[in-house]
Design brief:
The complex is a heterodimer.
Chain A lengths: L1 H31 L6 H18 L4 H24 L7 H23 L14 E3 L5 E3 H23 L1 H11 L1 H6 L4 H27 L3 H6 L1 H10 L5 H21 L5 H16 L24 H14 L4 H26 L7 H19 L3 H20 L7 H20 L2 H4 L11 E2 L2 E2 L6 H23 L2 H11 L1 H6 L4 H24 L12 H14 L4 H10 L4 H7 L4 H7 L1 H11 L4 H4 L1 H8 L25 E10 L2 E11 L4 E5 L6 H8 L7 E6 L2 E2 L5 H7 L1 E3 L12 H9 L6 H4 L11 H9 L15 H14 L4 E5 L7 H18 L2 E5 L3 H7 L2 E6 L2 E6 L1 H4 L3 H8 L2 H9 L1
Parallel strand pairs in A: 7-12, 7-13, 10-11, 11-12
Antiparallel strand pairs in A: 1-2, 3-4, 5-6, 5-8, 8-9, 13-14
Chain B lengths: L1 H20 L8 E2 L12 H4 L29 E7 L10 H15 L11 E7 L4 H13 L3 E5 L6 H11 L2 E3 L14 E2 L4 H15 L6 E6 L2 H16 L7 E4 L7 H8 L5 E5 L2 H13 L5 E5 L5 H7 L7 E4 L9 H13 L7 H17 L7 H9 L21 H4 L10 E6 L2 E4 L13
Parallel strand pairs in B: 2-3, 2-4, 4-5, 5-6, 7-8, 7-9, 9-10, 10-11
Antiparallel strand pairs in B: 1-3, 11-12, 12-13
The chains are: A alpha/beta, B alpha/beta.
């Protein structure tokens, strides 16, 4: 027991360090939305300056501490203004990479100024040991740091909860426009958070350097456990960070003592994170969760010209000099792994900081099979890809309930687990001798890279070409539409029958299989497998270079591969003496400049080239086949029956025992004042919110408890008050996704070229009726608000729903358009037998088109009946309609 | 027209930016050519060194054979050193670079390589710890026909490098051994067995000199360190001991107190540091802070004079295992090395890396002596036949004609399985006297 207690107490040391480090990290995230990977490097800078002032220049302790912390705060201000401000509208992943650039910059500058030697720093914190019993104790210095960490957490909690600054920070994170409207600058709020957060980074660096020693690596890596603590605090709660840090610090200490599994202690924080992520979050984001803006995606369909290009490249690769062939192989293999991010991040909008771990899992399995069993290359590759894909699905599990930074840290954690427990495990990787592999051969052709580097390069080019074609085909097909739908708007995707869970897992699986292909080719590149090439650093590199290249484009992956240090550009630089060394020092700023100058990636910059090629007099042949014909599923008319439905938000009942029926071929109006629970009712009926009580039936099918996308497939369509179109897809694609069939085999079939989909006849007619023919090939962001509302209606109706729930379809439309919409809705209901639940503030429209109306207030029904009865109901008149009555009755005319 | 101009200039800019970003971790060879034009006079000490007592040499030795005087003026020969230097990982080898420069300057001032009047030039190829760049470095070396050998490679991925070099018959002279390939490849000519034997030497030093009986090891979670733990176990067995505790620690651990406490528990009276230098120093400092007087052992490269200085009293009594003899030993090879260090270097960069570079180039010089043509093939042949080459006491004699027996003979190129023992006293590393070579895997 004494030993157990001893290691619990010893765990307070790292816990205090993590708690102290995590506070500023969370503050910066709360204030600016930036996951600051440079946080540890900022602590390093302050620590270096402090030690220099205090130990070398013999400044007084207080002066050295204050100067270092103030300098760190100033650095934070510079970062906020010079880096984050120009990137304020960029996707979060771009900002993450910018912080990696800052990290590189700080590291280089510190190395140039102070060198790389470790320095043991004099302790200025209280010395001695707190003894619980004779042998059980912990240093006063550790307890002091822990106490400071907790005190800062309390102070920040008070600051954010009780001060105007805290309120503005919270408001700024939710709605920057709103903050501006109130006369405040979101930029100033963000900068202030950067300044305070950076000061805390500096303070952490100064306080912990007597314990960690002045070591660039340790202080820079401090961000990893700090991230874990921050995540346990939900990136919002400072006290949560302190509590999470205690769990991590003590847990690691005990694991070190009692569990002798390779990598267990380093994996521990991330195992905790993943477990927490599995409990927190939800499959579908709430209405308040904003979709993160992501880089632009390509829209070109692959052409025969691409195949010709790949063939020519392979032939050329087969004739290159050795050194060029080796470099080309490096470039193309990295680009292959980068392709996995085109699928995962570019198309599906999911962040993974662990793609090289997945590549490594596949490479490891393939190599072991070759080494231990002597299996042929093709066989080990197939098994390796299969295992890599399964591994990727495991990486994807956190994505089912988490998003953004939480997902990024979770995948980083999983990568760390794989690295610690597999790639660093000598028993797994073959110890001192390593894992030797047999030379690869395919179809009797010896591809031994050491003997025939040109053949291997050509093989790598062909594989990249095939995988790249598959990704491009996926983008242009039903797969791409579903991936982009999830990326753009998970709620809207679920509303058109897309399974969020299924699509995310598919994206992780497909991306994983692509990364696995790259990983296996990397494993067989050398006769002894080099597992370091699957490091976490490489996983971060592939994200950085993919985004710089253009993560939404297949060509972007290739550009990223060329830019990796061992890629084509590096090869060319190496030919110029001393240039490389000079450029190392400025690599960080260069990354940041590129991100500012080319936010969509370099490949996006060259879209005009692709456009020009398409306009050549001799057109490049494209892989077009005949138009595929299909129709929307026919469903028998059914009525929607909602009985005693209640929805709770904590103690508040937003919907309270509501019962209503929507009959086929009718329009059921639902009106009520703001906050009455109308949209909440739609969310609950369509499966976006869980019901506390009550039942929902569609005909004889029970919908209660069913997932949103299943309700959609069962025949419950819906639109959204805020439209919520898929902004990365054309209007045609927005409508197509709702009505095109997606059998299971399409998830494989669409990876090869297939016919372009067209809107089916009935949908086409409806689109024409709504006047949308002229905007079909434009992006939603390029059309008027009125047209966007109409597209939302068209999308909801395109799936041929039995029941359609329309949430304020006429909001923002002109009177003429409103009337036309009403006319069309009536036609659809009566001619096609669709039941429509119409939520609308325009009582005139509701009165004019509805067969029946329910009025609700405070989540409770007031009255249900025909418009002529309901609109004259005294309680309705008193509580809701007032002066609108006359207009409404006129409208219902 | 204006738009076309913008796009074109932007395109050019992109190429430049692409080139810039590729330098994130630079893969270029950083040419640091020794100066064949040096006019410095030959070192009297080096040219008049007394023969080594152990020098029953078949091959000539720079330290034991009078070197021709006069600077070399003929066509240069080129060597390459592939080194795992990474600015991103804060990993540099300044002493290796110093050793290479002073060795080349010495040879160039003494009649050129093998007395051929051909000066030595050298390139460093920093790998940024990236196997792909290692492969590129090796391929570049092979493609450059003027390169006659690689010398003093420090490659964690030497499997990759040696695989490429083997195909071209390009020798790897005095590599820092990191993988089995360095002990197996016929183009590899290691002058010691690297970390395998130095790790084992730490354990045996604690047993042989420190009289420790319950020896524990702390190691970082990387395969090489874990492999080193196995060698520690094997070495302790040669002394009739078993390992007390094996404690893992991550590189970059912020607070090493829990791991240090675990290491010191269970009656540990000696601890081997199988970690990166930073972690090693922190563990020793923390142990002293916890009041422990347990003896620690490390290798010479982990604790530079600067680190020892910053550790102060905490470093006192630290046992140090070295792959080369320490500078306080009176041997001709050591004197030649330290003299050259003063003459051609800064006089301070003495450690196993600078000695590795020095010995590597001296051995190459010896291999080139008497060759009608100096090229990669003749050098490889000469090295392969080298027997009983004396380093003047920096190491035991080197003989590549007799396979080594380490690790049950699986690494036959490791023909020298010795270490030297030393201890930190008064902030300075001092040899354990009387000086002798220790063989950790052989029963004492």
């Amino acid at each position: 027991m004494a030993i157990f207690l001893q290691f619990v107490l010893l765990g307070l040391g790292p816990a205090g360090i993590y708690a102290l480090a995590g506070q500023g990290l969370v503050l910066i995230y709360r204030g600016s939305g930036v996951l600051n990977f440079a946080y540890g490097a900022q602590a390093l800078v302050a620590a270096e300056v402090f030690v220099w002032l205090w130990q070398d220049k013999t400044w007084p302790l207080t002066a050295a501490v204050v100067t270092s912390v103030v300098m760190s705060a100033a650095v934070g201000a510079i970062i906020a203004q010079a880096v984050m401000r120009p990137l304020r509208d960029r996707p979060p992943v771009v900002k993450i990479i910018a912080t990696l650039g800052i990290l590189a910059l700080f590291q280089q500058v510190m190395i140039v100024i102070f060198g790389t030697n470790l320095r043991i720093v004099r302790n200025f914190l209280p010395g001695g040991t707190f003894k619980m019993t004779g042998t059980v104790g912990v240093g006063h210095d550790r307890l002091t740091i822990l106490a400071i960490g907790i005190a800062i957490a309390v102070a920040l909690t008070l600051l954010t909860r009780r001060s105007t600054f805290g309120a503005l920070t919270l408001a700024s994170a939710e709605n920057q426009l709103g903050v501006q409207t109130l006369g405040h600058s979101p930029e100033a709020v963000s900068t202030a958070n950067w300044v305070i957060g950076s000061a805390l980074a500096g303070l952490a660096g100064v306080l912990i350097v007597p314990i960690t020693g002045l070591d660039a690596q340790t202080l820079t890596l401090l961000v990893v456990p700090a991230l874990a603590g921050a995540m346990l605090g939900g990136f919002s709660s400072f006290l949560g960070v302190a509590a999470g840090s205690l769990v991590i610090g003590i847990g690691q200490s005990l694991l070190n003592k009692y569990v002798h599994i390779v990598g267990a202690a380093s994996a521990f924080p991330f195992v905790v994170i993943i477990l927490v992520a599995a409990v927190r979050g939800g499959v579908i984001p709430t209405r308040d969760e904003r979709a993160a803006r992501l880089p632009r995606v390509g829209r070109n369909r692959p052409g025969v010209g691409v195949l010709v290009l790949v063939a020519v490249a392979a032939v050329v690769a087969g004739r290159l000099p050795n050194d060029v062939a080796v470099n080309l192989t490096t470039t193309v293999l990295f680009a292959t792994v980068a392709l996995s991010l085109v699928v995962l991040t570019g198309l599906a909008g999911q962040i993974s900081l662990g793609q090289f771990a997945i590549a490594g899992i596949a490479g490891f399995i393939a190599a072991r099979l070759s080494h231990d069993w002597g299996w042929p290359f093709v066989a080990v590759a197939i098994v390796g890809i299969a295992v890599g894909t399964v591994g990727a699905l495991v990486f994807g599990l956190p994505a089912l309930r988490t998003r953004g930074p939480t997902l990024a840290v979770a995948t980083l954690g999983l990568a760390l687990v794989v690295q610690s427990m597999v790639f660093s495990n000598p028993k797994a990787v073959g110890g001192f001798a390593g894992t030797s592999v047999h030379a690869p051969s395919v179809a009797g052709i010896n591809l031994d890279p050491s003997k025939y580097p040109q053949r291997y390069a050509a093989f790598a080019v062909v594989i990249f070409g095939i995988v790249g074609m598959a990704v491009a085909c996926a983008r242009a097909s039903r797969i791409g539409r579903r991936l982009l739908a999830v990326r753009s708007n998970e709620r809207a995707a679920a509303a058109v029958g897309v399974s969020i869970t299924g699509v995310k897992l598919y994206a992780f699986g497909l991306a994983g299989s692509i990364a696995a292909v790259g990983g296996i080719l990397m494993a067989f590149r050398f006769r002894i497998v080099v597992y370091q090439q699957y490091s976490i650093g490489q996983s971060l590199n592939v994200v950085a270079f993919s985004v710089i290249g253009g993560v939404g484009y297949v060509a972007g992956a290739l550009v990223g591969g060329m830019m990796v240090p061992s890629g084509v550009f590096g090869f060319l630089i190496a030919k110029v003496d001393n240039l490389a060394e000079i450029l190392i020092a400025i690599s960080g700023p260069v990354v940041i400049l590129i991100l500012i100058g080319y936010p969509q990636g370099i490949a996006a910059t060259y879209r005009p080239i692709a456009t020009a090629l398409r306009r050549l007099p001799v057109p490049i042949p494209r892989l077009r086949a005949r138009e595929e014909k299909w129709t929307s599923p026919a469903r028998p008319p059914s009525e929607l029956v909602v009985t005693n439905l209640s929805v709770r938000f904590g103690a508040v009942k937003a919907v309270d025992g509501l019962t209503l029926t929507v009959r086929p071929g009718t329009i059921h109006g639902l009106i009520g004042p703001n906050g009455a629970g109308k949209t909440t009712l739609i969310d609950a009926v369509s499966g976006f919110l869980p019901a506390a009580t009550g039942e929902v039936w569609l005909g004889d099918q029970r919908l209660t408890g069913m997932a949103a996308h299943r309700r959609s497939r069962a025949g419950v369509g819906r639109s959204f008050q805020s439209v919520e179109l898929f902004d990365d897809m054309t209007v045609r694609e927005n409508i197509l996704i709702a009505c095109e069939p997606m059998p299971w085999h399409a998830w494989l079939r669409d990876l090869v070229p297939r016919p372009e989909s067209r809107l089916p006849g009935l949908v086409g007619a409806m689109v024409s009726d709504l006047g949308l023919d002229g905007v079909l090939d434009r992006l939603p962001t390029e059309i008027s608000y009125g047209d966007r509302k109409l597209v939302g209606i068209a999308r909801a109706l395109a799936a041929n729903p039995v029941i359609c729930l329309l949430d304020e379809p006429a909001a923002g439309l002109s009177d003429t358009d409103t009337a036309a919409v009403g006319e069309r809705l009536r036609g659809i209901a009566h001619e096609r037998g669709v039941g429509i639940l119409l939520v609308e503030h325009d009582v005139g429209l509701v009165a004019a088109v509805s067969d029946e109306i329910t009025v609700i207030n405070y989540g409770r029904p007031i009255v249900t009946g025909p418009p002529s009865v309901v609109l004259h109901h005294p309680e309705v008149v008193a509580s809701y309609l007032g002066d609108e009555l006359e207009d409404a009755v006129d409208g219902s005319g | 027209m204006r738009r076309a101009h913008v796009n074109r200039s932007r395109g050019t800019g992109l190429f430049v930016i692409g080139a810039l970003i590729a330098a994130l971790a630079s893969c270029g060879s950083s040419k640091t050519t020794s100066s064949p034009q040096s006019t410095a006079a030959p070192s009297a000490a080096a040219t008049t060194a007394a023969p080594s007592a152990a020098a029953t040499t078949a091959a000539p030795s720079a330290a034991t054979t009078a070197a021709p005087s006069g600077k070399a003026t003929g066509d240069p020969v080129k060597i390459v050193s592939i080194v795992d230097e990474s600015t991103a990982a804060s990993l540099t080898y300044p002493t290796l670079r110093s050793g290479m420069k002073m060795a080349a300057d010495y040879i160039n001032d003494h009649g050129g390589l093998g007395g051929s009047n051909r000066p030595v030039t050298f390139d460093f190829c920093p790998t940024q710890f990236d196997p792909n760049i290692e492969a590129q470095c090796a391929t570049d070396a092979v493609n450059d026909n003027s390169v006659i050998a690689t010398v003093a490679n420090v490659s964690n991925f030497s499997d990759v490098v040696n695989g490429v070099l083997e195909k071209a018959g390009l020798a790897s002279v005095a590599p820092q051994p990191y993988s089995a390939s360095d002990g197996q490849s016929k183009i590899a000519f290691p002058v010691n067995a690297g970390y395998l034997v130095s790790s084992a030497g730490m354990a045996t030093e604690l047993a042989d000199v420190g009289n420790a009986k319950k020896i524990s090891a702390i190691y970082v979670n990387v395969p090489a360190a874990l492999a080193a733990v196995d060698t520690v176990v094997e070495a302790l067995a040669s002394r009739g001991l078993t390992i007390n505790k094996k404690v893992p620690i991550d590189i970059g651990t912020a607070d090493v107190a829990p791991q240090t406490a675990d290491l010191l528990s269970g009656g540990t009276d000696g601890a081997v540091l199988l970690t990166d230098p930073q972690t090693a120093a922190k563990v020793v400092a923390e142990a002293r802070k916890q009041g422990s007087k347990v003896a620690f052992a490390t290798n010479i490269d982990a604790f530079t004079p600067a680190v020892l200085s910053s550790m102060g009293d905490a470093a006192e009594g630290l046992f140090v295992s070295g792959l080369f003899a320490f500078d306080d030993i009176d041997q001709p090879g050591i004197k030649a090395f330290t003299d050259a260090l003063k003459k051609y270097g800064n006089g301070k960069d003495s450690d196993d890396f600078s000695k590795q570079a020095w010995v590597g180039l001296q051995m190459l010089d010896a291999a080139a002596k008497g060759l009608a043509t100096i090229d990669r093939k003749s050098i490889l042949d000469s090295l392969t036949k080298m027997t009983k080459y004396s380093t003047g006491g920096l190491t035991p004699d080197i003989d590549y004609t007799v396979p080594g027996t380490l690790l049950k003979g699986t690494v036959p190129r490791f023909t020298n399985g010795s270490v030297a023992y030393a201890k930190v006293e008064g902030g300075v590393v001092k040899s354990i006297l009387p000086f002798q070579w220790y063989y950790p895997f052989e029963k004492k």
